[in-house]
Amino acid sequence: MTISIASSAAPGCEAPVASSGPINERRVAELFTELLSELGEDPSREGLRDTPRRVAAMWQSFLSQDVPAATCFPESTVNGQLVIVSGMSVWSFCEHHMLPMNLVVTAGYLADGTVVGLSKFGRIAQHFAGRLQVQERFTRQMVSHLAGAVGHDNVAVTVQGVHQCMSMRGVRMEQARTTTVRKLGRFASDAALAHEYLTLTTTAQQGALR
Questions:
Q1: Radius of gyration of the chain from Cα atoms?
Q2: Out of 65, 127, 133, 135, which one is annotated catalytic?
Q3: What does the pLDDT look like over 15-26, one tens digit per residue?
């Protein structure tokens, strides 16, 4: 297992958060037809005849994840309450080998008179997964967007990833897991809060991966 932990003081190399616009599906299909030929396949045979079109449509759908608008609800009785949303599983593509990676996300924040609509956590994860990614950047983007949604920095995100670029190629270690943690505000400065969050997160992540 590889574990990376960052706090608000850590230097960043975050790429722009804007997702790709619509792609030219026809051109992508043409390029994939050429790729099949270069790989020694016959793109005109029955099993592959519609494959380039399907691949182009898949990329169009994958790269079309809109930025979610967070819905917040006033709730004055929850000041200082720890809220954790776990078990959010999304798929992305590693930008180094363009192979899939499955990311299981847990997000936490301290409620401060408002609560965030729970479905928005999953939509935020889907949005940042819908592009060529690396897990470290995905984690950073998640926590930054969540901080903007809740209106303060008392947020944290943990991601555990299974990367096919590691499990099906190269060293081929199918059981390898990569964990990244990004903590801001009190999650970075309050040792007791950080310990509580990481304990609950570890339990939640283990349950989600069973």
A1: 20
A2: 135
A3: 344 445 678 999
Collect all residues with Cβ–Cβ distance below 8 Å to 15 and sequence separation of at least 6. Answer: 137
pLDDT the model gives residue 210: 58
Residue 145 annotated in active site:
no
Q: Are 84 and 200 in contact (CB under 8 A)?
A: yes
CA distance 139 to 142: 5
Distance CA 156, CA 167 (A): 28
- Rounded Cα distance between 101 and 115, Å, is 30
User: Is 96 labeled as catalytic in the residue annotation?
Assistant: yes
**Distance separating alpha carbons of residues 61 and 55, to the nearest angstrom:** 10
Let me know if 75 is a catalytic residue.
Answer: no
The pTM score is 0.83
66 pLDDT tier (thresholds 50, 70, 90): confident
Biggest alpha carbon–alpha carbon distance for the chain: 65
